[in-house]
Amino acid sequence: MVLKLTPKMNKKIFIKTFGCQMNEYDSNRIFDTVKKIGFIKTKNLEETNCYLLNTCHIRDKAKDKVYHDIGRIKKKFRSKKKPLVIVTGCVAQAENEEMLKREPYIDLVIGPQAYHKINDKIEEYLNNQKKIDETEFDTISKFNYLRNIKNSSNSTSSFLTIQEGCDKFCHFCVVPFTRGPEYSRPFKEIIDEAKILAANGVREITLLGQNVNAYNYNSFRLSNIIFEIEKIPEILRIRYTTSHPVDMTNDLIEVYGVSKKLMPLIHLPVQSGSDKVLKLMNRKHKIKDYFEIYKKLKEINSAIEFSSDFIIGYPGEDDSDFKKTLDLIKKLRFINSYSFIFSPRPGTVASRSKLIDKETSTKRLEIIQKELFNNQIKMNKSQENNIVDVLVENKTKEGNKFFGRSEHMTPVIFDANNDDVGKIVKVKIEQYNRNTLFGRIVRKSKLRVA
User: Fold this and answer.
1) Is there a contact between 107 and 191 (Cβ–Cβ < 8 Å)?
2) Are 231 and 294 in the same domain?
3) Domain boundary residue among 86, 108, 141?
4) pLDDT for 315-331, tens place per residue?
5) Burial of residue 178 (number of CB atoms within 10 Å: 0-12, 13-18, 19+)
6) Of 351, 378, 405, which closes a domain?
7) Quick one: which of 137, 207, 211, 316 is 20 to 30 A from 259 by CA?
């Protein structure tokens, strides 16, 4: 008979997270859950009793990364007692049966809408020693369960999931199949969790959703959540990601004209500058719609900057389509953006389309990324000798500098004190590179009085 876990046993769990911010949030909530049955977190892989891999299925070779990682664990524990191996996340949802057949070292496969069952499934496995596949969609039950478990995140900047799933069915995307239909958490539940995070020491909250601005619960929208969280004194900054152009409604746009805590960086994926390609992608918006959103936001708050996602070499993209994407990037000057060559996801409409040859796609990506990187450099150069507001998050790994982010999410490295962590400070920017700003704190006594 296998010993049943109890809260006093202090078994050690090592959690590795791939992919998006939502996976980071999920990993934190999984740990909040398994603490109830005696697990403590470890960063030392050698001593773990349970290895949990939280996976992402958005990019190419995601499945291969999982098997590669499991292979590394097998080697490390070849001469030691095998840890409990759990695969969670979107790869687990998409490849559940195949994973258990292909890799016997995996003990449990748990999908992203079944995390509330993880404690029961761990104990079930330890008692019966039978492989477990738990990948049913049960989003409502999951969040009903998690609301009774305190979010223990105490970092300066923290994530808060408000919405999951997607009903858009873009032809390249697996999210509707791995995360299920759109689901908006109850409004009060979100605000209560935000207050817990604030009490833990969190000073910046990033609201998360596969389509975060599609949030809709009993007529409450994302704009209502922002205004309510803004009332929490300890919360100094609010962000959200990832949004969809179709759901960028006027009430949300208008928040940028009055909110003092909503940061002026909008991550709004456009994917392509060509209406033809957008139609092939089933994006449900046109470039003129995107321009209209851009114009409205800039008129309301000229400090707003945009970041975006771009899929290059999408099936059907010709030279003219590609040029339209490049022209869009030049015109709107996106910063901090992501660009990838199209990679087919199993089960999606686009996976059945004829691929553009790799050489053409690679050349196009290089051109796009050069333009995007130039935008970042120009943006960072414009900050040289300026004084910017930075939320101090933590010490750097080297331990002799501190790390924070500007209002536009740009990393900033500077000298500070431990007492500055969790505060917004003034930093004069003295140097920059493509990704980072470098400077020094300007204390109040050194600021000139106007």
Assistant:
1) no
2) yes
3) 141
4) 999 999 999 999 999 99
5) buried
6) 378
7) 211
